[in-house]
Design goal:
By secondary structure, this protein is mainly alpha-helical. It folds into two domains: 185 residues, Cytochrome c-like domain (Cytochrome Bc1 Complex, Chain D, domain 2), CATH 1.10.760; 132 residues, Cytochrome Bc1 Complex, Chain D, domain 2 (Orthogonal Bundle). Helix content is 36%, strand content 2%. It is globular. The N terminus is likely disordered.
Length: 339
């Protein structure tokens, strides 16, 4: 009976996920075949692959992008940079419910990690940016983030002769302009891939990479249906989903504009409370959780997912095992944090 109920919950979530994945110009498979898993798990398909290391990135642009990512001249008050909300030593996120922008302004939504963002099918919780370069412009112009403009940023940066020379070296047109600034930042962000997690080593054949509890957590993660949305190389990041498939998450609280999610982009009623499914890579490092930062720990977040996405009340052992598995998704930080 319980197996049948679990299958029904999984079927409901797969159906909903497939619906939101059907977007013009976007085609992402729900399940990604892979060789038989190593270790004690008995299966011939996996919904994910190990994270690949970045390749063929132009080193000069990556270095320039890193410099810009940390440059406070991108902000109107000269105090904040991209790294302010995405510190690498904290897993690429700032650990705050919402971030603090210029002049102490508070944001409206939780800052996602910048790690592995190159694999997201769209950027931002509501998917309003289709690329990393497009995303880079968002915080610069947001009045509660960096609060600046391309014209002001370019004017400030153009007084730096060494930086002007760096753009000449990095780009065929040699221009210090909005397009090249965004491309350089995106090039750096594409390098921020957290390879060699314990789970990836397990997939590659290291049977000792996961403990029995961690393997049990992965088994429950699959059987309960979590994996119907949190799948692919990122364990997420490749589809949209409603927050509250099996219950109304927003019923007992005032609804903010940020809570409307994808609706803010499309204006369609069916997109209310729909968000990009977040990646679970390095999730143990990026508390608090959800778009509203309402879950302080994984142990807080996992039961909420069970209740509102799967229609199930998870047992303490479920939560313990799944949390143990999620910790195995922490890879090597390219910026000195993480493992």
């Amino acid at each position: 009976m319980m197996r049948w109920l679990g299958g029904m919950a999984l079927a409901c979530v797969v159906f909903a996920g497939a619906y939101w994945l059907a977007m013009p110009g976007k085609s992402v498979a729900l399940l990604d075949p892979i060789e038989t898993l190593s270790g004690t798990l008995d299966e011939s398909l996996s919904p994910t692959r190990p994270l690949p290391a970045p390749v063929n990135l132009p080193a000069v642009r990556v270095a320039l992008g890193e410099q810009l990512f940390k440059d406070v001249r991108l902000s109107a008050d000269g105090r904040l940079a991209c790294v302010s909300c995405h510190p690498l030593e904290r897993g690429g996120a700032d650990g705050q419910r919402v971030s603090t922008g210029i002049n102490g302004a508070r944001g409206t939504i939780n800052a996602p990690t910048v790690f592995n963002a190159a694999f997201n099918f769209v950027q931002f919780w509501d998917g309003r940016a289709g690329s990393l370069a497009e995303q880079a412009a968002g915080p610069i112009h947001n009045p509660v983030e960096l609060g600046s403009s391309w014209s002001d940023v370019i004017a400030r940066l153009s007084t730096d002769e060494a930086l002007v020379r760096a753009f000449r070296d990095a780009y065929p047109d040699g221009a210090l302009n909005a397009r090249n600034i965004a491309d350089a930042i995106a090039s750096y962000e594409r390098s921020l891939i957290t390879v060699d997690s314990p789970f990836d080593r397990f997939l590659q054949g290291d049977k000792a990479a996961l403990s029995e509890l961690e393997q049990e957590g992965y088994r429950r993660f699959r059987e309960l249906g979590c994996i119907s949305c949190h799948q692919g190389v990122l364990f997420g990041g490749n589809m949209f989903q409603k927050f509250g498939v099996m219950g109304d998450y927003f019923a007992r609280r005032p609804v903010s504009k940020a809570d409307l999610g994808r609706y803010n982009v499309t204006g369609r009623d069916e997109d209310r409370h729909v968000f990009k499914v977040p990646s679970l890579r390095n999730v143990a490092l990026t508390a608090p959780y959800f778009h509203d930062g309402s879950a302080a720990t994984l142990e807080d977040a996992i039961p909420v997912m069970g209740r509102y996405q799967l229609g199930r009340e998870l047992s303490p052992q479920d939560v313990k095992a799944i949390s143990a598995f999620l910790h195995t998704l922490t890879g090597k930080s390219p910026g000195g944090g993480g493992r």
